[in-house]
Amino acid sequence: MLEPLNEAMDHIERHLDQPIEVAELARIAVTSEYHFRRLFSALAGVPLSEYVRRRRLTVAAAEVLAGERSLLDIAVRYGYTSTEAFTRAFRALHGVGPGEARRTGAALRAQPRMSFRLIVEGSGSMRYRLVEKDAFTVVGRKARVPLVYEGVNPAIAEFIRSIDPETVQRIADLSDQEPHGLVSVTDDLDESRAEGTELDYYHAVVTGADVPGDMQGLAVPAGTWAVFESSGEFPRTLQHLWRDVYTQWFPSNPYRSRPGPEMLRTELSADGTTAEAELWIPVERSTG
Prior knowledge:
This protein is an alpha+beta fold. The protein is 38% helix and 25% strand. The chain has ten helices and nine strands. β8 and β9 (274-285) form a beta hairpin.
């Protein structure tokens, strides 16, 4: 799995001054566009679009300092329609504009070229099972919230606090199948997966029941789900579970993620220091 990914990274480097199509990167990596985006962000710690932007601005910065091309020529070469747009993007990454950097030789930031390699830690095994589920409905309360990669998502925390206990209980009473009880469900993420972009968050249950008038529902078709179980220190266990699935399980198993919601069921200990977590991810067998 890692060799095709590194071939895709090589393709990015050869085409930094040209349009880069995610479909072509996915073809090289022998996977789907959907899975390639998700796998890349998990392995790299940054969305694909942001990595490409930073690499372009890193290479462009070297040309700015060399002084052999005009700023407009450099801007156009790396996909910007004007020097103004290029200057804004350049300043956002490097902290100074390209003109100032050329005049003063200011210190600039760089996004190193990435490659992937396998590190075998052997610290433990990952518990998982595959489940075939018929179509079902996610039912509960929904909010549109920003994507946050690290720590507690304050928008989600505030949203959950805003739901009154009586409504929470009515939602919980609708649960009639796995994963049982209240679950956190995320869906409709932006393709870029950039931090700050929005997603749908459901505080909900999985059910075959009708959607009450004061709640929201998400119809989910039948399919295969990979279910990952983890237990340990809270919140560290939850923060690491999703990362480990994409960095360890997917690269070593003949499956890839497919479009659909991700569902997380959590049970906290009485003192709130440990948690039992169960993460449901929609998958399909890889064709490559």
